[in-house]
Amino acid sequence: MTSAPPPVEVDLLVVGSGVAGLTAAVRAADAHGLRVGVVTKSAIDAATTRWAQGGIAAVFDTSADSTELHIADTLAAGGGLCDADAVRVLVEQGPDAVRHLIELGAVFDRAPDGRLDLAREGGHGLARVVHAGGVATGVEVERTLVGAVHATAAHVDEGAFALDLVVEGGRCAGVVVARPDGTTQVVRAAHTLLASGGAGQLFALTTNPAEATADGVAMALRAGVAVADVEFVQFHPTALAIDRHPRPLLSEALRGDGALIRDIHGERFVDEMLPRDLVSRAITARMLEQGVDHCFLDVTGIDHFVERFPTIASRLGEVGLDPTTDLLPIAPAAHYLCGGVVTDLDGATDLPGLWAAGEVACSGVHGANRLASNSLLEGLVFGARAVDAVAAGADGPQATGAMRAVLGPPSADDIAGRPLAVTLRAASGAHRAADGRPPTDEAAAKQAAEALDRLQRAMTAGAGVLRDAASLATTAEAVEAAATVAGATAHTRAGAELANLCTTASALLAAAAARVESRGAHTRLDHPEPDPELAVRFVVRATA
């Protein structure tokens, strides 16, 4: 048995290397002089952030736009479940967060007069989305933040897979990480920030990279930390329907510039500028009606497509599609987890010493459905806020934002935060960090991979864009079967990731079964209308 390296101690340990995590790392080291460590299970620039295309929503043109209008669009998309205070924080602090990113070296597209070139996306009443390279915004954001991290005192540990939180004396004291050689290490920290992204790999079709295996949500659940809104998985309506994983994304910006959605017969059937949940629902319903696995995006009416969207044009060319003449096959794909680990307005969870920001978190800004291009913005704003709170001496949560659903009743005029707990039985097979066996058992890894494929297919069919009680029950059986395999293979990375997905899937299914209505990104065929009595936040905790 290989001996583990000695413990490491830092002021702030960041788990994940996307926009939220790297924003926090840069701010902690540069602005506050904290000893910072970043652990990421792959390369530092392999996070979901780099796959983001659309841009960052923020109010810059105050002659036509305003924070109130951006807030209104966000609340409308959120289906009555956004926390209004969290949304205001996001929108009011967003422009300064983007300006700071520009100060760090980010280059965004400019209009001929030198001002930021603003695009309009679905759900936005006005053009307010800044972008880089047309649809290469995520790449530019990641490039900027990676460079900034390397220029600070932050230490980055690549290839370090966070297995579980270390909880001592009722507080988080760091994480246990696994390394490719099979060794494990306890990385101790005064404060730990989960910024590990979402759960796209729960589904067979996703725009997320292979790393998006719900690690942060699962670790939090196993540690008894509250999660919420996990039934709301946003499916991007226009993922390119080709045999490639992750599915290439055809950006929201295309529809903002006039791209049309057509069915297999070439007929339009949906307003392309509706929020993503409504467009995904319409496309899925039309696919089922026509017995096909895709619809089409018609971009032939966009002038100078190749010059305006060179990244997408190049990607289409690689698969033999010409955007100037061809209809592009599309189908909804899992894109973003709207919920996650419950936090207050400063990113504190209900476990002292543990913080969360970005897609892994439930800050309250997204509610039942995320407004396009608010995700990178959330990472920038709340990653920084968490660090500022740590530097100011905070150590636990306040009854603000989504945390009101955990710590106490909201005000009389705010039912969105009213607590409603749903108890779930966590998936079995959670990995044990002290196992000591090397993650090189090829037979076990293959077994886990096969089980993952079955899990993803079951989740897509039964808990995807369209759901009902029967499909959720069938999917729960598939999750239990996958969890059994996870328990037998958890000494491999594939098995550990499968265990994380099963744990998170159990939470998702519990909340989806309890939400007997349709709201935002959650559509129940057996309950097609929203229920005013369910305008509440479902808080999920794992049982022992």
Q: What would your notes on this structure say?
A:
Helix 1 links the parallel strand 1 and strand 2 (36-40). 34% of the residues lie in helices and 18% in strands. The protein is globular. The strands form four sheets. Strands 1, 2, 6, 7, 8, 9 and 16 form a seven-stranded mixed beta sheet that branches. The chain is an alpha/beta fold and 544 residues long.
In short:
The protein is an alpha/beta fold.
Secondary structure blueprint with pairings:
Layout (H helix, E strand, L loop, with lengths): L7 E8 L3 H12 L5 E5 L15 E2 L9 H11 L6 H20 L14 E2 L9 E2 L6 H14 L4 E4 L2 E8 L2 E8 L5 E11 L20 H8 L4 E2 L4 E8 L11 H5 L3 E3 L13 H15 L4 E4 L6 H4 L1 H9 L9 E10 L2 E3 L11 E3 L4 E2 L12 H17 L12 H4 L11 E6 L17 H22 L5 H21 L3 H22 L22 E6 L2
Parallel strand pairs: 1-2, 1-9, 2-6, 9-16, 15-17, 18-19
Antiparallel strand pairs: 3-5, 4-5, 7-8, 8-9, 10-15, 10-19, 11-14, 12-13, 13-14
Helix pairs in contact: 1-4, 1-10, 2-3, 3-10, 5-14, 12-13, 12-14, 13-14
Low-pLDDT regions: 1-6, 411-421, 425-439
Overall number of strands: 19
Shape type: globular
CATH hierarchy, class of the largest domain: Alpha Beta
Structural class: alpha/beta
User: What level of helicity do the residues show?
Assistant: 25-40%
Counting DSSP H or I runs of 4 or more residues, the number of helices is 14
Q: Which fold name corresponds to the CATH topology of the largest domain?
A: FAD/NAD(P)-binding domain
Biggest beta sheet attributes: 7 strands, mixed
Radius of gyration: 22 Å
Architecture of the largest domain in CATH? 3-Layer(bba) Sandwich
Question: What average pLDDT do the residues reach?
Answer: 89
Query: What percentage of the residues does DSSP assign to strands (E)?
Result: 15-25%
What is the CATH homologous superfamily assignment of the largest domain?
FAD/NAD(P)-binding domain
Instruction: Tally the structural domains.
Output: 2
